[in-house]
Every structure is written in structure tokens, then in C-alpha cells.
Amino acid sequence: MFGRMIQAAAMVVAIATPALGLDWTTKMFETTSHDFGTVARGERAEFEFVLKNLYVEDVHNHSK
Questions:
Q1: Domain locations in the chain?
Q2: pTM of the predicted model as reported, rounded to 2 decimal places
Q3: Is 52 exposed, middle or buried (0-12, 13-18, 19+ CB in 10 A)?
């Protein structure tokens, strides 16, 4: 679970970095960041980033 959260956060950082020239990817997400506020140790912190593929090409997860 924690790994998925880290993976999602890393994906958002990569997508939101304009230096990489990936502005087209930010259009696919309703939101590209989320503030969890203060989370107690051991508590679950989850957030679902909604993705909508606006393009003809398939979306692949290459973070594995």
C-alpha cells in the first residue's frame, strides 16, 4: 500500500515537472497534487488520482 502511494507521488512529480516537456500528461489528470496534512504514524493515507486518457495511444505504467 505504501509502495503504491510512493509510486503515485513519484508519477505526479514526474508529470508536473515542466522541464521534462510533459505538459500533455497533466491534461490527463483532474488534479496533480494532494496535501494529506498531518498523518499519524501507522495510519493509512490514500488518495486516488483520476486519470482520463485523452489520446489514441494506450497509457502504460513503466515504473516497475
A1: 1-34+46-55
A2: 0.47
A3: exposed
